[in-house]
Amino acid sequence: MPDEAVPPFDLAGCLDRVRQRDQAAARELVDHLYPLVIRIVRSHLPRRVAEEDLTQEVFLKMFSRLAQYQGAVPFPHWVSRIAVTTCIDHLRAQKRRPEFRWADLSENEADVLDAVMTNENDVPANDAMAAHELVHKLLNQLKPDDQLVVRLLDLEQKTIAEIAEITGWNQSLIKVRAFRARRKLQKMFQELKRKERS
């Protein structure tokens, strides 16, 4: 006997049931949206914040604001915006880290930075993890909005239009933020290298 196909998730029906205080529907909605929310939280996770705590906060905000959802944008996009805003709020609340120094780098990260700064060749594949860590350490030095635009544009390869949809920012602002953030990263890179040489 062939397996029965799983019916597609009925988001509109589920939302109607959630509005009628159906607990089972609320659990279904969380299960359906969890992969989307956890992906956003992991890519924008502030230091010292547990991803599950932040994910729960996103869902609490979603349920508390459900009456505000008018259907002007798809529901997952609306939830994405709540998730991104929640992460930004946490990033803003954290104290800025003291100045980032060459001494803060691991040996692998220092080697990767040295390789990047001294030639145009790609870093070796075995240094990919060190490069990843280094990028995130440098990103953490940026303001939350700058971090977000660089992560979305350069690390997640989102388009300007997609970022505008996620954040609610206009496209010109995104381009300006991306330009400034990249310049700041480049300056930090150069400063680290200068300190290492002195």
Notes on the protein architecture:
With 198 residues, the protein is mostly helical. The chain folds into 2 domains: 1-95, Orthogonal Bundle (Rna Polymerase Sigma Factor, Chain: A), CATH 1.10.1740.10; 97-198, Arc Repressor Mutant, subunit A, CATH 1.10.10. Helices cover 68% and strands 0% of the residues. Helix 3 packs across helix 4. Mean pLDDT is 77; it is low at 96-100 and 116-121.
Key attributes of the depicted protein:
198 residues; mainly alpha; Rna Polymerase Sigma Factor, Chain: A; Arc Repressor Mutant, subunit A; 2 domains; elongated
CATH architecture of the largest domain: Orthogonal Bundle
The percent range for strand residues is under 5%
Structural class determined from secondary elements: mainly alpha
CATH class of the largest domain: Mainly Alpha
Low-confidence stretches: 96-100, 116-121
Q: Give the proportion of residues in helices.
A: 55-70%
- Which fold name fills CATH's third level, the topology of the largest domain? Arc Repressor Mutant, subunit A
Q: What is the alpha-carbon Rg in Å?
A: 21 Å
On the 0 to 100 scale, the average pLDDT is 77
The largest pleated sheet is described as: none
| Extended strand count | 0
CATH superfamily of the largest domain: Winged helix-like DNA-binding domain superfamily/Winged helix DNA-binding domain
Query: Could you tell me how far the N terminus lies from the C terminus, measured between alpha carbons in angstroms?
Result: 74 Å
- How many structural domains? 2
In sequence order, what are the helices and strands, one letter per element? HHHHHHHHH
Shape verdict:
elongated
Q: Tally the helices: what do you get?
A: 9
